[in-house]
Amino acid sequence: MSEALLRATAVVTAADLPHMVLARHELPPALHNFVLWREGELDNETLARQGLPGSSAARFRAVGRLTGYLREFAAPAPEPGTPLSPGTDLVAATVVHLFDDPQGVARWIEDVFLAAFEAHVDREVQPGQRLLVVRRLAFRGFADLAAGLRVLQTSPLGLVSSTIVDFRLGRLLGVAYVATLGNHERTTLVQRLGRELERKIMRVVLGDR
Q1: In the chain, which residue ranges form alpha helices assigned H by DSSP?
Q2: Under DSSP, is residue 4 helix (H, G, I), strand (E, B) or coil?
Q3: Sign of the alpha-carbon torsion through 112, 75, 21, 174
Q4: DSSP assignment string, 157-171
């Protein structure tokens, strides 16, 4: 990662984050029929409510996290009475988190992203949702530190797989993920989604929106 880009992330504010997450037309072709499902600021309190058991805003702030922004897309609803087939991608999203410094991003990837998921294997994380498998994935081609997971869990729809990549750009953490019905892995698709997010973050950081 260049020193110029590192210095540029030092002046990023929360107001910049909505410009960094991907818009619908920027999604990979496999996701172009997806529709906007939800978006908005992810402050530490909101993220803790949505996170794994034991999450807290105080802990997130202690790691160095300030805030974040999410934009999430969902597959179009099937026709009434039409069952979803295993392998159907359900949700895709990009998220950008802002930290005090790059060291906080590294701590988050190791202690909150990787370690917390692995600590909850075979535990219920939400009513009706139990983590069955958490496996680390190697993602390459990113400018700096990157780590990935493939998570398999139960849900009201049946088994659902999530393929996730976290990557660092200075004091920014980029996240891309795809949730898929059944026991499936979407490494190639998430790699593409994550790299597109990384490129967009770089453009915004360097002043091109």
Answers
A1: 3-9, 44-50, 57-63, 102-107, 115-119, 187-205
A2: helix
A3: positive
A4: TS-EEEEEEEEEETT
What is the helix (H) or strand (E) element at residue 51, kind and residue range? none
Q: What SS3 class is residue 58?
A: helix
180, amino acid identity: T
pLDDT at 69 over 90: yes
3-state helix, strand, coil in the chain (%, to 5): 35, 35, 35
pLDDT of amino acid 158? 92
Coil, strand or helix: which one is 160? strand
Record the tokens describing residue 187, joined without a space.
């490494």
Closest by CA to 148, choosing from 183, 180, 186, 181, is 186
Q: How many residues belong to the chain?
A: 209
Residues 6+ apart with CB under 8 A from 127: none
Span 4-35, pLDDT tens digits: 778 889 999 999 999 999 999 999 999 999 99
- Assign 103 to helix, strand or coil: helix
Average pLDDT over residues 104-122: 95
Buried b (16+ CB within 10 A) or exposed e, 64-76: bbbbbbbbbbbbe
Tell me the CA distances in angstroms from 122 to 28, 54, 93, 116, 131, one per residue in order.
33, 15, 25, 13, 5
What pLDDT does 16 receive?
Answer: 97
